[in-house]
Amino acid sequence: MRGEKTFSFFLLLFFILISQTTATNYPINVWPKPTTFHWPNPKSIFLSSNFTISHPYHRYLTPAVDRYRHLILSEHHRPIITPAINLTSSIPLQSLIISVSDVTSPLAHGVNESYSLSTPSGGSSAYITAGTVWGAMRGLETFSQLVYGNPTRVAAGVYIHDLPIFTHRGVVLDTSRNFYGVDHLLRLIKAMSMNKLNVFHWHITDSHSFPLVIPSEPKLAGKGAYSNEMMYSPADVQKIVQYGMEHGVRVLPEIDMPGNQNL
């Protein structure tokens, strides 16, 4: 017992020392921690009220850009501890320019989600370069985390390069045993996107209930759901999948074969 306690103590001390020697404290930190975060001279610049984001058109990237632009201009995030950063230029940041090498790659397992982000110390444009639109979405999330205050400021002179260590970063939710409404699922997907997760494993049905409405077999949900208010219509599923794609989250449905459904 004493040996186990001694081992646990030294293991804890090891991780404390490692964290102190490898972690760099910046006035603003990004979550999850990027592979490379280079900010040699932490300063900030104002964000123009006419700030724009240019990008290649894409069915899912374009709504994401519109969402992030609105968030960046309207949120005026106020950190618990205001970053002690001096303004570096009187010229506000005018634009964010997004470049994507491959706009056709689907959101599939192993898709390239890497990106690079740079903000100027005194220039008028910031840049995101990504291999795919899904990497560009991760870069947009990172950029939004560098923005704060009212009037709005953004970290200046930052270079970030990032790619995920794990290609599958997901959350599983069982809506058969515990039903969750559509709004709850959308809120979950939004939170996943903010944390750069990419797979929503949706365990829709099981022996406990069958909340999925299948038009060709209406009795499955009619007799298998907990109630008429606890069902997912085809339109609900389409909305959830669409919302997931616009947030870089792949919806992976799991539909168990119905059993003992007394049809």
Automatic annotation (TrEMBL):
Gene Ontology terms for molecular function: beta-N-acetylhexosaminidase activity
UniProt signal peptide: 1-23
Domain Beta-hexosaminidase eukaryotic type N-terminal: 30-146
Keyword terms: Glycoprotein, Glycosidase, Hydrolase, Signal
Catalytic activity: Hydrolysis of terminal non-reducing N-acetyl-D-hexosamine residues in N-acetyl-beta-D-hexosaminides
The organism's place on the tree of life at top rank: Eukaryota
Domain Glycoside hydrolase family 20 catalytic: 166-259
InterPro entries documented for this protein: Beta_hexosaminidase_sua/sub (IPR025705), GH (IPR017853), Glyco_hydro_20_cat (IPR015883), Hex-like_dom2 (IPR029018), HEX_eukaryotic_N (IPR029019)
Keyword Hydrolase: yes
Any Pfam family matching the protein: Glyco_hydro_20
EC number, as in UniProt: 3.2.1.52
Family recorded in the similarity comment: Belongs to the glycosyl hydrolase 20 family.
UniProt protein name: beta-N-acetylhexosaminidase
Organism this protein belongs to: Solanum stoloniferum
